[in-house]
Hints:
With about 220 residues, the chain is mainly alpha-helical. The protein contains nine helices and no strands. Helix 8 (about 140-160) runs antiparallel to helix 9 (about 180-200).
Amino acid sequence: MFDMLPALAAIDVTDRGWLIALGSQKNLGQGAVNRFIFSKEVIDSREIEDLGLPEEQVNDGREFLGCTRLDDSGVQQIINHALTTAGASDAREPCCGGVHAAWAPTLVNQRRVPGASLIANLAAAAHYMLARYHVCAAKAAAWQMKVVIDGYDEKKRVLIATGDRDLKKVALTGNRPFPPDFAIRAWAYKGADDGETDRLKCNSKVVRSVFPDVNGQEL
């Protein structure tokens, strides 16, 4: 995959589509066809899609887009460290304050360092913590948070498709936002689910608003 991506990027977009069609006709096998489709999506749509490829090949796609490789155990370590070092909950948020502190300022500030927004493990941890806090604090139901997460990636897709390939229109700092990525999205979903567990333990009496109140600017 590491050599395949630059090779396909060097040819015309129409030819990339033709190669995928030809591979399907030649019965190369679904695995080989999926590698072509994955590569085309990385190059043309700047998105990391889940097509069942080995993690190493998926990470090659992230590196091609200028991001670092993602490691789930590394993501969990960042999450654990942020929760441990962020500090205790404040009196205003005895249930979710610690999670909020782990998200903003801890992980948010780390991502504002030049180039840090494209560190995959850090991006996944920050997305997780944002979702966990908002659901824990009853600012959104878990399902609503997942809709917001999906909507943000869809917004990125539209921008990329209309020429904003570096997502400058949603970049609030000098850093380029992380491209749409199924694994980053999965970590955010997990944050929403863990936030619901938190809410049921210590914040279940708070009434949620009908519409989600999500500050997602640091996504």
